[in-house]
Amino acid sequence: MSDKHIVIIGGGFTGTALAIHLARLGHAGLNVTVIEPRPQLAQGVAYSTDDPAHRINVPASRMQLAGDEEGVFDRWFRASSDFNADPDALWSDGNLYPQRGQFGRWVNERFNQAKQHTAVKLTHLRDRAVALHNGVVTTASGGEYRADEVVLAISHPPPEVPRILNMLRGHASLIADPWQRDALASVNIDDRVAIIGSGLTMSDMVASLHRQGHRGNITVFSRHGLLPRNNLSGIYENRTLDYCQPQQASARGWLRRVRREVKQAAAENLPWQLVLDDIRRHGQQIWQSLSLKEQRRFLRHLRPWWDVHRYRIAPQVHAVLHQLQASGQLSVLAARLLAAAATDKGIQLTLQPRGSIPEERVVDKVIVTTGPAHGALLNSDALLRQLAQEGVIQADPLALGIHVNALSQTLTAQGKANPHIYVAGPAARARFGELMGLPQVAEHAEAVARQLLGVTSSASCAQAPGAAP
Ligand SMILES: Cc1cc2nc3c(=O)[nH]c(=O)nc-3n(C[C@H](O)[C@H](O)[C@H](O)COP(=O)(O)OP(=O)(O)OC[C@H]3O[C@@H](n4cnc5c(N)ncnc54)[C@H](O)[C@@H]3O)c2cc1C
Fold first, then answer.
1. CATH homologous superfamily, domain 163-229+312-368
2. How far is ligand 1, taken at its centre, from the CA of residue 181, in Å?
3. Whose CA is nearest to atom 27 of ligand 1?
4. For the whole prediction, is pTM greater than 0.90?
5. What is the CATH number assigned to the segment(s) 4-157+373-453?
6. Residue of 8, 14, 34, 444 with the most ligand 1 atoms within 8 Å of its CB, for mutation
7. What is the pLDDT of residues 114-154, one digit of tens each?
8. 330-343/218-222 β-pairing
């Protein structure tokens, strides 16, 4: 192979996994630079937390780089000294749920191994990319790096502050970015806390408050008031749906099918999680069989339900939520925020619970946990903003990230594929569908690595879901 330089922008899990796959698949002469401002790779938003209450949300045995030996992270953690230091990581069913930072450390270690033991030259450049013109990446410190190919691996912007809370911006009572280090440092033990959003980040926040010995009331609210479901306890064989059955390629058609499958599983004394897990494994094919209209329909009507069944929480975190709800310290409402005002007694929130009359709550702290503002991704970063303003890239039509083709190449404002700029990871999920959890992100990183190197995949194609009748 002649000399080639691939620059990966963003060294969270995706960018680091991609670099490792390039090192495994590439040859001497290939240079891979990961531009990432954090001191350690593979942290990103998900694995940079050092709060011991934040755990991975699937068993460690399922967290791996694509193509790895199964259970490799689980074994690494059990053999590490941190295993003894964190007895709570081991759940009663034998599954391990380590603190999230441990996973970042493991992936970073793999990057360092690949750096030492492969012919490909891997570099972590501690900097931030701020511009890309004619194949030259400019960084915040003024460096310029010529690249044959650039891969954007930037996925999670901070949550967007709801419009009604805009007037509280900068107020000491508003915690707008829950992912900032020490985000909860200003919360006093008896503070009344309101949390907007009831998904995984909310679960992290409640687990952190509990660990801090919080005693004040916590009110969680979101439009549907749905909480992430618990993980499956115990060991089960995968249950595979029959994808050859005729299947209507619509959001409603799949909803009916899933309900039927869950019923059938229950009749066999099997948990619903097995059905959802198989749908998730085939999520990319199902998604791509839907028209844009049906994808929009899914996002509008079914996404809140899909999210809580698909993104589950570690049993340790589930137990905390359950305990605090049972004691009355934590209440969860399906409600809309109508108004917010800073008063001398605290922040006064006016909530409109579903099917009921508006009610007032006065709290000391408001935490925004509405999840990454993916619709605003292109505006959240100087480099992405420049590329979008110049029409080099564009947002996808579902406002989930960046518009790409089936090869993960970016599309210009005119819809033309750019064979020199790729997207890896969740920012490409409008095209591919299920591309958020580790297994799918790792597989996508491997697929992009193959694409970049022109290496064909040896993996056999999964069974395609049945076509619409
Ligand atoms: C809070 C949270 C918890 C999760 N927990 C789990 C879990 O337990 N299990 C699971 O399977 N999945 C989990 N996920 C999902 C999954 O692991 C993530 O989607 C995945 O880690 C995506 O990471 P990423 O590298 O694509 O993006 P990001 O985490 O967004 O990382 C992007 C990186 O790019 C860098 N960057 C940004 N802009 C620039 C720039 N201009 N120049 C250079 N660098 C830049 C940032 O510093 C960052 O490190 C979680 C997701 C989140 C958000």
1. FAD/NAD(P)-binding domain (3.50.50.60)
2. 15
3. 155
4. yes
5. 3.50.50.60
6. 14
7. 999 999 999 999 999 999 999 999 999 999 999 999 999 99
8. parallel
